[in-house]
Amino acid sequence: MASLMIRLTAVSLLLLLSACNPVFNWREVRPDNTALALLLPCKPDKAQRSVPLGGRPTELAMLGCDAGDATFAVAVATLDDAAQAAAVLAGWQTATLANLKAAGGGQTSPLKLTGADALPAAVLVRASGQRADGRAVQSQAAYFSQGRQVFQAVIYADKMDAEVAETFFSSLKLDAGNPR
């Protein structure tokens, strides 16, 4: 009987500890020098690097983290001219799909995003492809702009969880009064 009580106590303790450590610990983040706010399911790391966007080296600031067997990231670049946004976002989308070796080039749908520029329109791209090591990966990526800033918000996962993706993408908010 004492052995059973010890096991039940141990199981109860494990359940209590697991309740204190959720897989997705959603928190609001705001990338520096942007009007964007979004939810990430974990504490993000920051990075910055120069990438070719629109045919020229451009500083790209990124926030990202891993949770629940998925990678979540948001990246932003500030362009010299807002008129470049459509071409830069189209090129960024093409490059991302090429890096994924996306089968069929992905599926694009409109994305309703308050505060985003109407042109180019915000889009959500769903694709399946391969990681660098050849393993299968699914992705969903939003592309949008505000003023001179262009954004990509993306999830990469072995298997996309629709509820998690909805939480992430529906959390994207741009302060319409503060375009950069």
Structure description:
The protein is an alpha+beta fold and 180 residues long. The protein is 24% helix and 40% strand. It contains 3 helices and 10 strands; from the N terminus they run αβββββαββββαβ. The chain has a 7-stranded antiparallel beta sheet with strand order 3-4-5-9-8-7-6, with helices on one face. It is globular and about 40 Å long. 27% of the residues are buried.
Annotation, overall tally of beta strands:
10
Structural class: alpha+beta
Sum up the overall morphology in one term: globular
Q: Order of SSEs, N→C?
A: HEEEEEHEEEEHE
How many H/I helical runs? 3
* Span of the ends, CA to CA: 68 Å
Give me the Rg, rounded.
19 Å
Strand order in the largest sheet: 3-4-5-9-8-7-6
The main β sheet shows up as: 7 strands, antiparallel
Spans of at least 5 consecutive residues whose pLDDT stays below 50 are 1-21
Q: Whole-number average pLDDT?
A: 87
Can you give the helix content as a percent range?
A: 10-25%
In terms of DSSP E residues, the strand content is: 35-45%
Specify the oligomeric state: single chain
Structure described in brief:
The protein has three helices and ten strands, in the order αβββββαββββαβ. It is an alpha+beta fold.
Topology:
Blueprint: H1 2-19, E1 27-29, E2 36-40, E3 45-53, E4 56-67, E5 70-78, H2 85-100, E6 107-110, E7 123-130, E8 136-146, E9 149-157, H3 162-170, E10 173-174
Antiparallel strand pairs: 1-2, 2-10, 3-4, 4-5, 5-9, 6-7, 7-8, 8-9
